[in-house]
Amino acid sequence: MADLRLPTNTIVRPDKDRFLDEDNPFESMMSRFDRAAELLDLEPGIYKVLRSAEKEISVSIPVMMDNGEVEVFTGIRVLHNTSRGPAKGGIRFDMNVNLDEVRALAAWMTWKCAVVNIPFGGAKGGVICDPLKMSVGELERVTRRYTAGIIATLGPDSDVPAPDVNTNERVMAWLMDTYSMHVGHTVNAVTTGKPVEMGGSLGRREATGRGVMITTIESLNHLKMEVKGATVAVQGFGNVGSIGAQLLAREGCKVVAISDRTGGWHNARGIDVDDAIAYVKKHRSLEGYGKGDAITNEQLLELEVDVLVPAALENVITTKNARNIKAKIICEGANGPTTANADAILDEKGIFIPPDILANAGGVTVSYFEWVQNRGGYYWTEQLVNERLRDIMVNSFRDVLKLSQQHKVNMRTAAYMVAISRVSTVHRLRGIYA
Questions:
Q1: pLDDT tens digits along 47-69
Q2: Pick the catalytic residue: 88, 112, 124, 328?
Q3: Which of 88, 124, 322, 406 has its CA 20 to 30 A from that of 164?
Q4: How far apart are CA 350 and CA 320, in angstroms?
Q5: Would you place residue 20 in the very low, low, confident or very high pLDDT band (cuts 50, 70, 90)?
Q6: Domains of the chain: residue spans and CATH
């Protein structure tokens, strides 16, 4: 077996001795990786392997627009690590897509899959475009041409995409169909997050929000805080935030604040989450909801609540506002909502933080269930999906908590240690192909 050690025992960590760029999610992710690698005494060779993406693809996407003009978009796909199984990760359509962001998200997916111990590696992809300004036909043509551009990596045994920001089950249906047309037969396991009628899993749409709920309840129980009446503020009222809020309310928590890109609403007596969801379904945002006091997204983060759920964008909790956070628990529904520089401040304040790679892993867990069902051609009930999701989320929370207590580190560092340990073990066993 090949030796993954370098001739020297020194690990060169470029981010270790400088203040990180808080706007760069890749730097934040890698600084946490570095801290966990150091605590694990990770061999320099494996450190170098895990710090680098296996594959980075950039494709040009020429598309005939509805007005007859040709536009050329850029698509990206990064496969970070596939040592434990096929690459797994979403595709987003957004003007802010860039390589550093996609690299960070792909690595996060590697650690997320390892934390919940499912046999996938990490990937992420995106197309730089504004889907809100595009017709359905234009979106379909972008999706199909992007799929064709990265098709060499795609496959149920190699790279399995899923929905992400501004993509949905319809986009996954187009992707699956394009791939299937190229290989000459239907391959529904090439993607997850599909319509149920095409092999999508029951419970998939609610899975990430359900995972956030389960993790929040476990956190409250660990801290010996009452679940009934626990106050919750949710930043981001999309799929993850709205379902997480709805399920927490059903568990007896009191959701007192919600927000989306248009702003937020605070009501100390509690917000009727089902009513807010119905309003958004009709009006497409929380703008004008009116059942509470209007607040900004920034103000919501600083409310005095038991639980804060940032479920919107990256880098919303930074050194600029971390000292003003009053929540006892921050359950990270979004990817990378807290910058690495803010971690020390929140630790100093004693805030308990189940990190993103644990808290929002419900989605990829049920994506795994969907892939398994597709491969087996046998489909589970929603009750069975939810029961198996709960088992994995609870066991993963307890694995991370145990390591956190053993090593006297926060939950984020412990989660990275669990993930890196699992991935590095496989690299040691597999060795290097020479």
A1: 999 999 999 999 999 999 999 99
A2: 124
A3: 322
A4: 18
A5: low
A6: 25-186 (3.40.50.10860), 205-354 (3.40.50.720)
